[in-house]
Write a structure and sequence with these properties.
The chain is α/β, with parallel strands linked by helices. The chain is built from 5 helices and 5 strands, in the order E-H-E-H-E-H-E-H-E-H. The chain has a single domain, classed as Rossmann fold, CATH 3.40.50. 45% of the residues lie in helices and 19% in strands.
């Protein structure tokens, strides 16, 4: 099984740190950035299995980030956002996201989601 590397694209310091901790506890090596542009810039050089993207980034829309990175990676892309409408979910999936998780979320909920992701990835390998 290949190394598990994650990129967190989240502008809120507290949420970014929570995502880092939960993903590290789940066995990921995590890099995080606070803007969409930095996330897009990191992608070509990174070998990733998971990318989380917030929709409300300070410099660009999270949807634009997803649209830009989707053609460059086979990593699972999860939008994690306070926006919870069906329209936002549909737009995220249409942009290329594989999953949508609504803030606020419980760390246990994220760990369970990551566990399910790992099981699905193991099944595919």
């Amino acid at each position: 099984m290949s190394p598990k590397n994650a990129l967190v694209i989240e502008d809120d310091d507290d949420i970014r740190r929570l995502l880092e901790v939960v993903l590290e506890q789940s066995g990921f090596s995590v890099e995080s950035v606070a803007t969409g542009a930095l996330g897009v810039d990191r992608l070509p050089a990174a070998s990733l299995s998971l990318i989380t993207v917030d929709l409300g980034l300070p410099d660009m829309s999270g949807l634009d980030v997803v649209e830009q990175i989707r053609p460059q990676t086979s990593a699972t892309i999860a939008v994690i956002s306070a926006r919870s409408s069906q329209k936002d979910r549909d737009a995220s999936l249409a942009a290329g996201a594989d999953a949508f998780l609504t803030k606020p979320f419980r760390p246990r909920e994220l760990r369970q989601w990551v566990r399910e992701l790992d099981e699905a990835r193991t099944f595919e390998d």
